[in-house]
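User: Can you predict the 3D structure for this chain?
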Amino acid sequence: MDEHLPPLYKDQRVEDRRHLKYLSVAHYAFAGLLVVGIGFLFAHWWIFFHLLSCPGIFADGCAKAPPLGFFALFRWFYVAVGAALALGIAANVVAGRCLALRKWRTFTLVVDFVNFFQMPLGTALAICTFLVLVRDSVVELYHPGLGGRPERS
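Assistant: Here is the predicted structure, written as structure tokens:
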């Protein structure tokens, strides 16, 4: 008797909204991990600078202190990596908000293209986001004229 019942169809719009909500939270969490990365970067700079600028380390004569230009070069390295992390934080927060509001789909895809190179978590997040955002049913949610206006809760 059960073989004659029609299959149960799930509403794809409900699934898409749920996936977009999860991806939005994941982008916020990834931005939080990038904040932790800035903390590690600062801790690395602090240890690096204080250990190599301590005269007692090089007092025994078996090693020379690095030249001052060495510190200047690494200072720019830390600034560049810190700026890249800060831009990643801002971009992922905005992308998470865009996913929640179902706006700026292309911006979110660009952010995830950049996240793809941040192994391994950024890669996983980028692949999942890309797979969800290219679905036709999700594209319809991003266009208000097609009935995809975000719900007010």
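Residues 16-58+65-146 form one domain. The chain has one domain: 16-58+65-146.
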